[in-house]
Prior knowledge:
Blueprint: H1 2-10, H2 16-26, H3 29-34, H4 37-47, H5 55-58, H6 63-79, E1 82-85, H7 93-96, E2 104-109, E3 118-122, H8 129-144, E4 148-151, H9 157-167, E5 172-175, H10 189-198, E6 200-203, H11 215-226, E7 229-232, H12 241-250, E8 254-257, H13 268-275, E9 279-280, H14 284-289, H15 314-320, H16 330-337, H17 341-353, E10 357-360, E11 363-366
Parallel strand pairs: 3-4, 3-7, 4-5, 5-6, 7-8, 8-9
Antiparallel strand pairs: 1-2, 2-6, 10-11
Helix pairs in contact: 1-6, 2-4, 8-9, 9-10, 11-12, 15-17
Amino acid sequence: MMEHWLRLIYMKGASLTQKRYLLEQLGSPELIFNAPQGLLLEILTKAGGKKFDLDQISRPPTLAISETVAADVELLERIGASFLPITDSRYPALLKSTEDAPLGLFCAGNISLLDLPQIAMVGSRHASRGGAETAQQFASVFCENNFVVTSGLALGIDTAAHQGALDVGGNTIAVVATGIDQIYPTRNRALHRAIVDRGLVVSEFPPQTPPRRAHFPSRNRIISGLSLTTLVVEAGFQSGSLITARLAAEQGREVFAIPGSIHMPGSKGCHYLLKQGAAIAESPEDVMEELRDPTTVCLHTTFQQTVTRAELNQSQEQLYSLLDFSPCPVDRLIDHSGLTADQVSSILMQLELQGLVTESIGGYQRLP
């Protein structure tokens, strides 16, 4: 039942990895919640990692959670959306193969698009006119060649990619960092509606979840995880699109970048990716040539982060030393480092791009 899945998603104190391990061992949320505490303890002891209170599982849900779950179910039914759990045969195999695949996807639109080969297109929210036109053109060609264009519904390159797909009657998937019922950014209200009607909007977050900064990196792993390859169209050096590219590489997918003028700040991120080993894309055909057989995943990517802690500058090392493997709020990092908010934000972005830290709910933490 959807209620049990929602209850599992809302359950505090257990990591996504632990929840997935419990599912693998017991088969369903219902069996997890009905299992004896001794069995749960045995399973979680084998899994290792973070400890949590077994009462989170064994005790009945609080009134607040029960009311929230009931409201979510009613809202999903009212707007015609559905929930696709990770145990469902329709759950996309590529995404399921990633280490941190979500427990399920809230979907509004044509779920069957998840079965089709997808190309992720990402880039700057502050796209140049040329960058937006390029994104639209590439997306249109991809769709005309039977690929689904997947992006994040953000302003700029994302918007242009979705629109380019819709303009030729193609298929597009928007992965959002809010609840499926929320519209963010609000300027994309009409585009959101068009994608629900003619494509698919998906989210791992329950209905009514507002936009939160920590949710966007989480959203990015789904964009890359659904796709055979990720194309960065236009991006500055501190663009979140570079994080999507890193995640794609970690997932064993090919990464492409479109080169631009050396005088354009919006080209710096793409040039950085190309220096790191991303494949160059001067035309849509360059990308599609690597996907001759769309039923297979490109596992030969050479793009990887090569930065080690020894290569950090003084400010980066200072901030990195304040982090461990549990989330640390940004305001605490500002207080303890003596750096300004802008400096901390910039350094955290650099560390994230270098694959040393990640943003999660509650702040930033080191990556193993």
